[in-house]
Write a structure and sequence with these properties.
two-stranded antiparallel sheet; Jelly Rolls; 14% helix; globular
């Protein structure tokens, strides 16, 4: 192989390896509802209780006054979902959220999907909009750690303890 062809081959191999590494380390959007199971009208889903979920508030930022925002807060929490744990049925009609799966994998049951959705470690999912109701369950046999950031109203604040309620 000529010197130029050898350098070209090495450069191409290096570029492909760098591209593969970039794709492997980039955050991934979470599992999605298969196209043929997506619903345009939300379905009724089971009311599931809160089982085996530990919630820690990591940070809260008051948004009042920022760009005309009323009395709202940006909150980030860590949710640790035990084996066979359930994040209870809840809605996101009026509470935008982003969830990142930091450890493990978890199954979501959504009002807009006819089948369960698997979310894996390193993936994220947005949660917001009219009729957005769901619950999550840990079927993995291992503890799952989620990081959740949401915008919450002042009703979530407990003035007696000056802390935020961990309501889902």
């Amino acid at each position: 192989m000529s010197d130029i062809a050898d350098r070209l081959a090495r450069s191409l191999a290096l570029a492909l390896a760098a591209g593969a590494l970039t794709l492997a380390t980039a955050p991934a959007h979470a599992g999605e509802c298969p196209v043929d199971h997506r619903l345009t009208t939300p379905r009724a889903i089971e009311e599931k209780p809160d089982i085996g979920v530990k919630r820690d508030t990591l940070a809260v930022v008051p948004l009042k006054g920022w760009r005309g925002v009323a009395d709202l807060y940006l909150r980030t929490r860590r949710l640790i979902v035990a084996v066979d744990g359930i994040v209870p049925t809840h809605q996101h009609d009026d509470r935008p959220s982003i969830v990142f799966v930091a450890k493990g994998e978890i199954v979501e049951h959504s009002a807009f999907c006819a089948v369960p959705i698997l979310h894996r470690e390193g993936e994220w999912t947005p949660e917001f909009g009219p009729g957005h109701e769901h619950w999550w369950e840990n079927r993995s046999g291992k503890e799952v750690v989620l990081l959740s950031s949401d915008v919450i109203p002042p009703e979530y604040f407990d003035p007696g303890t000056e802390s935020f309620k961990n309501a889902m």
